[in-house]
Amino acid sequence: MPKAKKIVWKGVDDMPEMAVSLSSMRVNKTASWRNLKPVIDYDKCKPCGICWKFCPEPAILLKEDGSPVIDYDYCKGCGICAEECPRNAITMHREER
Amino acid sequence: MRKLMMGNHALSYGAKLSRVQVIAAYPITPQTQVVELLSEMCANGELDAKFVKVESEHSALAASIGASAAGTRAFTATSSQGLALMHEMIHWAVGARTPVVLGNINRAMAPPWSIWTEQNDSLSQRDTGIMQVYCESNQEVQDTVIQSYKVAEKVLLPCMLVLDAFYLSHTYEPVDIPEQKLVDKYLPKFNPPYKLDPDDVHAFGGLTDAKWYYELRYKIESAIERARGEWRKADDEFGEIFGRKYGLVEDYKCEDADIMLVTSGTITGTARVTVDMLRDEGKKIGILKIRVFRPFPTDEVRDILGGAKKVACIDRNISFGQSGVFFEEIKSALYNSSHRPQIWGYIAGLGGRDVTPDTIREIVKRTEESDKPQELIWIGLKK
Ligand code: SF4
Ligand code: SF4
């Protein structure tokens, strides 16, 4: 886990001069703009790793046994995983917040 | 120590004296000698800096921005088409608030190919937020590099230092090289508030939505406005230590002048000599030389030109569909001022055509004889 001092500000006077993330990217989550959410049906998934390979973020992590887990803190909802899955195990659902 | 050197080498010496740590550059006429000398200095150990050879000007500035983001003092130089290719990265250097200093040798844009001087390359970068300083002599070039780092690192904005192709870049003049320890005293180490640092990890320039982008733009404007005062301070302090001062603008005999010429770059030197001759003939002419163009020296321009009856602005550039750029700028600075002189706009010397004392005399004569200002006069057009 990288070290990073957290930056907080209230307004224009105390914010940093340059666009700098509040902390490391572990803290700086980037999924707030997702409007379609991929969901894996583990009954259909036979872990092949294709979705993991194609995810551009990458927001799919592989467990020890090779099965995929979606990291919803960074998934942007592009749907590439759902498109590429040969078993149609991933479906896209409207994001409810 | 005094040394006879060309304007390009004055840029190199300025960078060396500023102890730049990273130089990234791509060759282009008439700039190449600037980085050639710096690469020799890096190779023979005279300068402790990393010289990065890149495949384009776009990469040259990108590498300089990266170096600056890591907290080092970065330098690059280019000209004309090379500067145009850097355009995207100039916006980036500004937004990322990286105080890179960029030497640009004014060269006319193609087509048709030209290697001779004209200001359209640098003035096309006007609205990016990079500071711009136009130099008149080799001494001023060397000194301005040092001053540029001082100001740029204070306000965290890049700075472009501009000199005329050949009239300055390849012309030899004596230059006083100050002692390194005096420069070190004037210019402390670069120490940015945020930098690429494995012990404090942040992402720079990442996606920022409308919630804060607006404030970041406001901060750039506040910084460049603050830079006006920083330039005055940096110049005063430079004067105290090194005995040379340049100002944001220079007022040459404007006090009692009936006609004030507005100049920039090497045309100023020619105008100076011509004004002395005209004064011997009893004509009261003065010159306002614009040195710092961004941030624009609005107060100085209002103060000095406000006292003129007639102003003749000489532009070695043209904003097609409008007028000369300096003409446009001084007009806009004076519009809300209580004293508004009449202003004539002259286009001269494009593509490196000589602007001689006779050209200046003709400009003065036409301004004297006319009582209605004209915005776009092509001086010396072959008809
Ligand atoms: S929707 Fe896109 S970003 Fe999200 S997990 Fe699938 S491929 Fe990755
Ligand atoms: S591509 Fe489909 S089958 Fe393959 S691991 Fe991903 S979800 Fe499972």
UniProtKB/TrEMBL annotation, chain A:
Describe the location of the 4Fe-4S ferredoxin-type domain by residue ranges.
36-65, 66-95
Which Pfam families does the UniProt record give?
Fer4_21
EC identifiers of the protein = 1.2.7.7
- This chain's source organism reads candidate division WOR-3 bacterium JGI_Cruoil_03_44_89
Q: Does the keyword 4Fe-4S apply?
A: yes
Known cofactor(s): [4Fe-4S] cluster
User: What is the protein's name according to its record?
Assistant: 2-ketoisovalerate ferredoxin oxidoreductase
Keywords (alphabetical) are: 4Fe-4S, Iron, Iron-sulfur, Metal-binding, Oxidoreductase, Repeat
Provide the GO MF annotations for this entry.
3-methyl-2-oxobutanoate dehydrogenase (ferredoxin) activity; 4 iron, 4 sulfur cluster binding; metal ion binding
**Keyword set includes Mitochondrion:** no
Q: Which domain of life is it from?
A: Bacteria
TrEMBL record, chain B:
What residue range is the signal peptide? none
- Pfam families found in the cross-reference section: PFOR_II, POR_N
Lineage, top-rank taxon, reads Bacteria
Q: Which GO terms describe its biological process?
A: carboxylic acid metabolic process; response to oxidative stress
Keyword flag Oxidoreductase: yes
What CDD domains is this protein classified in?
TPP_PYR_PFOR_IOR-alpha_like
Which residue range or ranges hold the Pyruvate flavodoxin/ferredoxin oxidoreductase pyrimidine binding domain?
A: 14-230
Cite the InterPro entries for this sequence. Answer: PFOR_II, Pyruvate:ferred/Flavod_OxRd, Pyrv_Fd/Flavodoxin_OxRdtase_N, THDP-binding, Transketo_C/PFOR_II
Q: Which GO terms describe its molecular function?
A: oxidoreductase activity, acting on the aldehyde or oxo group of donors
Q: Which UniProt keywords apply?
A: Oxidoreductase, Pyruvate
* Domain Pyruvate:ferredoxin oxidoreductase core span(s) in chain numbering: 257-360
* Protein name in UniProt: Pyruvate ferredoxin oxidoreductase
Q: What is the lineage of its organism?
A: Bacteria, Bacteria division WOR-3
